[in-house]
Amino acid sequence: MPGLKTVEALQFLHTELSKVVDEHTRTQTKEKWRHFLSAMRGKSTCFSPFSLVCLLVISVSLFIAAFVDSDGAASDNKWVQRSYPMLHLPISPCISLQWIMRDGYLVNLPHPLLVEGDVIIMRPGLSAPGDCKSVDDDTCLVHGEVFSGSSPQAKGDGPQPRVPMSSKKFILQETPILKNFRYSPFKVYFLNAD
């Protein structure tokens, strides 16, 4: 199973995130935004008008730099296999990476770039990035469930040779990053601020 193409996956992620942002925008009222802005202007915040302007200028500069090559020509931004993190990077507590099939290649992707319909490779001992269903059989994993690989082998007296546990292909049934936006504390702040 070749998995999704990078362009398709990023377009899907953009569409889904746009829907979440639009839904959030519709639920907010002008009064709640005024309350937020007045809280930002207070003396207890680290944001000042000057720091917000600097942050905006830096963000725009980085955005422009991401789409322009060093010679000043606009780049194609084609993702190739070397654009992804190496497959055998050690597990890090700072970033969660997942083996995934993209553009017909096995690549390593951070969880926020995973989308519904992606073919992921679950290795034994890793937790599922979202709800997913096995490609080969009816096995299902829920978000956070640890994949155990094959069934335990029979125990005998003394040392026994063991067959290594194998990885298994699953299809994601949800886009994991959307949960972060739908249930974020920022949204809860707005819903409870009156």
Query: The CATH topology is what?
Result: Calcium-transporting ATPase, cytoplasmic transduction domain A
**Can you give the mean pLDDT?**
77
Level-1 CATH class name: Mainly Beta
Estimate nothing, just give the exact number of structural domains: 1
| Distance, first to last CA | 51 Å
Number of strands: 6
* Beta-strand fraction estimate: 5-15%
Q: Helix and strand succession?
A: HHHEEEEEEHH
Shape: elongated
**Low-confidence sequence ranges:** 188-194
Give helix % range: 25-40%
Round the Cα radius of gyration to an integer and report it.
22 Å
Please outline the major beta sheet: 6 strands, antiparallel
Transmembrane segments: 47-68
Protein name: Cation-transporting P-type ATPase N-terminal domain-containing protein
Organism: Elysia marginata
InterPro entries: TMEM94
Distinctive features:
Cation-transporting P-type ATPase N-terminal domain-containing protein; transmembrane helix; six-stranded antiparallel β-sheet; 13% strand; 194 residues; disordered C terminus; membrane; alpha+beta
